[in-house]
Amino acid sequence: MNATMGRYRAVTGHRLFWPAAVLVVMLAANTIYRPGFLSIELKDGHLYGSPIDILRLSAPLILVALGMTLVISTGGIDLSVGSVCAISGAIACMYISKQPDQNSLAVVLAALAMAFGVALVLGAWNGVLVAVIGIQPIIATLILMVAGRGLAQLITQGQIITINSEPFRAIGLGHLLTLPLAIFIALAAALVVAAFTRRTALGMIVESVGGNAEASRLAGIRSGRVVFLAYVLSAACAAIAGFMMTANVSSADGNAVGLWVELDAILAVVIGGTSLAGGRFFLSGTIIGALIIQTLTTTVYAMDISPQTSLLFKAVVVIAVCLIQAPAFRARFTRRRRNVPTPNAIADKPKEQVPA
Amino acid sequence: MTTGSLTAGRARLRLPRRQIPVLATLALLLVMYGIGVSQYTAFSNVQVIFNVFIDNGFLLVVAIGMTFVILTGGIDLSVGSVVAMTAMVSAWLLQEGLPAALVLVIALLIGPTLGLLMGCAIHFFEIQPFIVTLAGMFFARGMCTFISGSSIPITDGFWTRISQERIGDPRGNFVSISVLIAFVVVAVAAYTLAYTRLGRNVYAIGGNPQSALLMGLPVGRTRIAVYTISGLCSAIGGILLSFYTLSGAPLIAVGMELDVIAAVVIGGTVLTGGSGYVFGTVLGVLVLGVIQTLITFDGSLNSWWTKIVIGGLLFAFILLQRLIGIRYK
């Protein structure tokens, strides 16, 4: 009995349990509502089906959320990722649209390299503001979030740039080994980030900076450099995500690309169990978080509810996941279940501390 | 000796450090207005200033609520959506034939209720304000489209009368009733922050929540109160917006929270809390309004320049706050 309880505790106590449970419940609900939901079929050598769609569409969000995880882990936040998506997509499309042969691979690669370079510069700008000048991250990146939208529109001159380039389109809609290429790109990025943070000391350094930047600095870690790198990486991930978003529709719209993706990404990170206060980070949790958000969006579309109303469901899921993860809420809940007559500890905590 | 030279330095400076950002904003506003007047003859018309107030009255009210929240070191991302939801609910209830007074009361209750709930979630469950108000933002925006997918016009007599009422001098310069309401909100907020116990608590919590707690100040109650106040201001802002547009639209005021936060920061309030004034926020909103007016007057500049300029100004003001050494985390 005790062993079973212990095992039960170990499973429910695992940091990935609740996010994964939410994802499974959502998939199950979908399958009940629409029995064909989980079926996958092979057509023209490509796999098709709702689960594949969810994976493909969540690829940009996974990318953005990966970078965001590291930034949040250093105790910061990056609000500018949506604007960086828009700018990188706009630059790539603008360059390709000006070339005589839009289908040439060299042109597309040059466009991607240029847009990626600009994104790195934008990331470095954020990094300098936060790490060198010492501005609070939320406001430092708010600058680029507001101004970046304007810059993206400036690049496209307020137009929607449509291009007709097969190699570029492949980033969003191409296939590799029967699966969408976007999935592999996101997966590769996740593996690279995971390898660098978990196979080297980098991950631990990032966590230590997030835990206490000053103490880490005194321990010999160049905190500033780590924070700077996190913002550059976040912008790089956002740029690739921006390519995917624009490639999906073969056009760049400075206003709409990556709109609110920063909020979705932050949600994915928080759902995945990384604390907004910084410190420990969980890449696998972030990926599950991104999948949850995309599944929710797809579900709402499938149920014929207007996309805007899906925000209602998002709000409910956010609050539910955050409440489940909040230590204060858990403590209260478990105490009540055990029937120990302790008056609500949180409300009384201030009063206890007063005489001290 | 050291103290002597220090006091001498202080005496020469004269300006209290806390007020430098506000004064800088004031200077910027005057310079921008000066540029406008020197470039465009029509700019010197008093009505231009009145129009800035008429067009930004609702923004001003919402920014006042946000000032309270930011002063405690929090943030409220839900304001834009709450504004839209309030306008939407009033339009919908009026369409259903409810009397205007009742609609007004209901609309004014929704915002504070949501704010109260968010404040409770932030205080009792210790969830980050950013996440809680983000959920509030999603919820309110979702409610808008839940009520109606398209815009609802307002034809109610009371609403149209207030919307068309012009208060002005014989020369034809006028302001709308909304502007007067916004001024009342500003006055009440300024008094509350400067002269009441609640106002002092707000500054104390923003300065250092731990010290405030040890001093025996009601940290929890104050924190919940500021989110409720922000909700109330958003609700008033929503009503003003419905006076202004005479409709409720599900996608109105999208991204408004960014403008509001930008206005508060440009107005000199420090995002970590504890330092800032209502008057600064008024100036911040005016700066945003004058930028828009300048760009409209110019005609050759496109609307995206507004965003780029606001971003640049944000950067300049944050750098200024940094240089004069106001405490940052």
TrEMBL record, chain A:
InterPro entries membership: ABC_transp_permease (IPR001851)
Locations listed in the record: Cell membrane
Alphabetical UniProt keywords: Cell membrane, Membrane, Transmembrane, Transmembrane helix
Spans through the membrane: 16-34, 54-72, 79-97, 103-122, 129-152, 172-196, 226-245, 257-274, 281-303, 309-329
Primary location: membrane
Membrane-protein topology: Multi-pass membrane protein
UniProt-listed PANTHER family: ABC TRANSPORTER PERMEASE PROTEIN YPHD-RELATED-RELATED, GALACTOFURANOSE TRANSPORTER PERMEASE PROTEIN YTFT
Identification of the protein by name: ABC transporter permease
From TrEMBL, chain B:
Primary location: membrane
Subcellular location: Cell membrane
Domain of life the protein comes from: Bacteria
Gene giving rise to this polypeptide: yjfF
Spans traversing the lipid bilayer: 20-42, 48-70, 100-125, 132-154, 174-194, 224-245, 251-271, 303-324
Organism taxonomic ancestry: Bacteria, Bacillati, Actinomycetota, Actinomycetes, Micromonosporales
Membrane topology, as annotated: Multi-pass membrane protein
Keyword flag rRNA processing: no
Key word Cytoplasm present: no
The protein's name: Sugar ABC transporter permease YjfF
